[in-house]
Design a protein that fits this description.
By secondary structure, the protein is α+β, with helices and mostly antiparallel strands. About 40% of the residues lie in helices and about 15% in strands.
């Protein structure tokens, strides 16, 4: 959240800080990445986080059980060039300054601020990668509590979009959401599984995307029309086997 605050409110400070880190790494990229990562874990410096995001494998944040950033560097590249990063930062600052309010609170507190014309997007930690020996998130969400929260949104008629779990090949991750026709689910193909490829398997990963009935009614789309729109837009999409999972 602090990184976004800096980008929005002090974009040139972020640009200069990132350019300095990117330049200092030249010729010792692997060593420098580890130095920056260690320093970020000590200080929480948001500009160092931006550098780590630009350099780490698949731009995917990973934390250990102590809450420390522990993702490895992608040593095939140096990270986004400072000139291109500067353009991105300035564009984001221009777009968001004066139009957003940044908060860091429990997700359930946000429901009280949702207006009748708002659309809520939810992207919680996925169940399938929040636990085990290699978690992708610092912490997950309690499934039963999250289901109760979704129930409150549905009862209020809140229009929302939820990205949550999915499958790799035939392996389905996470518990199904028990809402019947209150949620319309689709699967979005996100590409070949890197983990499966390393193990010599050719498997495709699909992520689940749910749209509330209130949202479909607001925009005047039936589930069938929505599916057609996704195909027309070029996204590989299949209806989730909802009846089999609920």
């Amino acid at each position: 959240m602090e990184l976004w605050r800096e980008i929005i409110e002090r974009p040139y400070t972020v640009i200069e800080g990132y350019r300095r880190l990117w330049t200092e790494q030249i010729g010792r990229e692997k060593e420098f990445y580890h130095l920056v990562r260690d320093d970020f874990n000590r200080t929480g410096d948001p500009i160092k986080l931006l550098y780590l995001l630009a350099r780490c494998v698949k731009a995917a944040v990973r934390y250990n059980s102590r809450g420390e950033f522990n993702q490895s560097a992608d040593n095939r590249r140096k990270g986004r060039h400072p000139d291109r990063m500067a353009a991105d930062i300035l564009a984001a600052s221009w777009l968001l300054r004066g139009r957003v309010r940044l908060t860091s609170v429990d997700y359930a507190e946000v429901v009280d601020e949702i207006g009748e014309n708002d659309v809520l997007y939810l992207d919680p930690p996925y169940q399938g990668v929040s636990a085990g020996t290699d978690p992708r998130y610092y912490g997950g969400v309690d499934f039963e509590r999250f289901v109760s929260y979704l129930e409150s949104l549905i009862e209020r008629g809140v229009a929302f979009i939820l990205s949550y779990d999915g499958r790799r090949g035939q392996a389905v991750y996470g518990n199904p959401l028990p809402f019947g026709d209150e949620l319309y689910g689709i699967e979005v193909e996100s590409g070949r599984s890197a983990q499966a490829t390393l193990l010599g398997r050719n498997e495709v990963t699909y992520e689940s995307l749910y749209l509330s009935r209130a949202l479909l009614e607001r925009i005047g789309l039936s589930p069938g029309e929505l599916a057609h729109g996704f195909w027309a837009g070029g996204f590989a999409q299949l209806p989730l086997p909802m009846a089999d999972r609920l």
